[in-house]
Amino acid sequence: MVCTDIDGDKMGVYVKADTTDGSGEIIVDRLEWGRGLVSDGDRFYYYTGPDIYERDLVSGRSRIVCRLDPAAAVYGPLSITKDGSTMGIYWRVGGQWVIGTVDVETGRVREVATPDFAEPYPIANHAMISPEDRNLLFFAHEGQTEYIPDRIYMADVRSGEFRCGFGQKRMGTGELGEYVGHEMWAPDGRQLYFVKYPHSPLKPTGVYRVDARNGEAEFVNGDYRYWHVAVSPDGRWAVADTTEEEEISKIVLIDLASRSSRLLCEIPMWKQHPGHPHPSFSPDSRKISFTLADEERNLRVGIIDITE
């Protein structure tokens, strides 16, 4: 799935594209970029306002999954369990940010947490359901990383209780020493991967992972100035892009067994959305796709087969 023909308002066309011959089929027209999710069952989920929709990419059938309160606005990214039964979502009603889940079959929306973070950083976002446990999700306290003392939170869907998922360290002065973000589930749901950004005062910086149950964290790799990270479905690899001084980014493959890295390529990119590379794996863990910019600064999709 590709969002293409993005205009100045960041509205685009969602296309099911064939990577072998370049052909495509329009799935949704005129929808803001970043509003879609494809499940393991080849169903495309997207949202507009308070409504979430499903489009079967094989049969072409469409339906409304759920409708929230008309005053609500759903935000992305969406997330879904591996079995396709439950979505993790977040939305805003007035000034309140809400973390919740959706039963995909029945459309039942469940409010899990309303963190009520204080100004000037009130946003709770990035609600991602565990791929293997529909009763566990994480969310993020969004804001300027230098001023967010604890970004990652774990929430129990049944009880609504939430706790810090990674305790960020402070320096002797009391100032925050670790700036983190771009968290992502490991496919087995046991760990979260995230990036400790290169401008963090406390070292080492780079890719980390934390146990979802007990909060124990470990350093994975810090060979580059990492930015976003994703894990392969087979759990063997991680791929990350980097943040650099210029409008370029490196795509780096990390072997999770040896924790060694290999530079795959260096690409031009945009500093602003939607031009971040955001590399990710294909379902068979063989290919990596990412966004890049061409010589005219038009956005393109790059694909690397790591088996070649």
TrEMBL record:
Q: What InterPro entries does this protein map onto?
A: WD40/YVTN_repeat-like_dom_sf
Q: Specify the species.
A: Paenibacillus agaridevorans
Q: Which SUPFAM superfamilies has this protein been placed in?
A: Tricorn protease N-terminal domain
Query: What Gene3D superfamilies does the database record attribute to this sequence?
Result: YVTN repeat-like/Quinoprotein amine dehydrogenase
Q: What is this protein called?
A: Oligogalacturonate lyase domain-containing protein
